[in-house]
Amino acid sequence: MSIKTNTLYNFLKVLSWIIFLALCVQTGAFIFNYVFSLFKPIATQDLYLELDLSELYESSKADYSILFLLLIATSALKSFLFYWVVSLFRKLNFVRPFSAEIVTQIVRIGYIAVIAGLLSILALQYALQLESKGNDLSFITKYWNDYAGFLMMGVVVFVIVQIFKKGIELQNENDLTL
User: Fold this and answer.
1) Which residues are CB-neighbours of 137 under 8 A, at least 6 positions away?
2) CB-CB contact of 44 with 52 (8 Å)
3) I need a labelling partner for 143 at 20 to 30 A (CA). Which of 6, 100, 108, 124 fits?
4) Per the UniProt record, which residue ranges are transmembrane (predicted)?
5) What is the band of 53 on the pLDDT scale with cuts at 50, 70, 90?
6) pLDDT-above-70 percentage for the chain
7) Distance between CA atoms of 124 and 25, rounded to whole angstroms?
8) What are phi and psi of 92, to 5 degrees?
9) Rounded to an integer, what distance in angstroms lies between the CA atom of residue 66 and that of residue 45?
10) What is the rounded CA–CA span in Å between residue 163 and residue 117?
């Protein structure tokens, strides 16, 4: 591997770790805020990232819980996605880059990306439905506006899986001819 490629690889590895840790902190903060707000309803006014769901909490605790659980679930899926990306970096082998284990990791990443995108669409639609009932949730919909990016990433990842599968075939053929 050239110095430039190695530097880029290490940069992407560190960046993936930073994103993974940041998403874990965000997910943990959402979980803590939700649990804390159940015991101290006054906390619904000043949640993590300046979320104010106090009106929704007052009007419907069930809608508040569903919306917050959707927020936690999408954040957790994004964290889980980057867990598998970080794990992929640990398993990459540049001597024999095409392996069934790597393909399995990449397939997991693709599935999680698609599920995160679909869940974001569901959560966004739910928030918009609550908004149509008179709740002001315009500040929370920004957390689910990245659904198209996750869906597209899932599709791109599945294309990469097909390339890796062909790479495995070629690598095995090459091993047999030696």
Assistant:
1) 56, 67, 127, 128, 130, 131
2) yes
3) 108
4) 12-36, 64-86, 106-127, 147-164
5) confident
6) 96
7) 22
8) -65, 135
9) 17
10) 23
Residue type, 132: S
The domain locations on the chain are: 3-177
| Amino acid (1-letter code) at residue 99 | S
Residue found by looking up tokens 């790597």 in the block: 102
Q: Measured between alpha carbons, how far is 98 from 126 in angstroms, rounded to an integer?
A: 41
Helix H or strand E encompassing 157: helix 147-177
CA dihedral 47, 19, 77, 116 (to 10 degrees): 100
Q: How far apart are the first and last CA of the chain?
A: 23
User: Smallest Cα–Cα separation from 71: which of 5, 8, 9, 137?
Assistant: 137
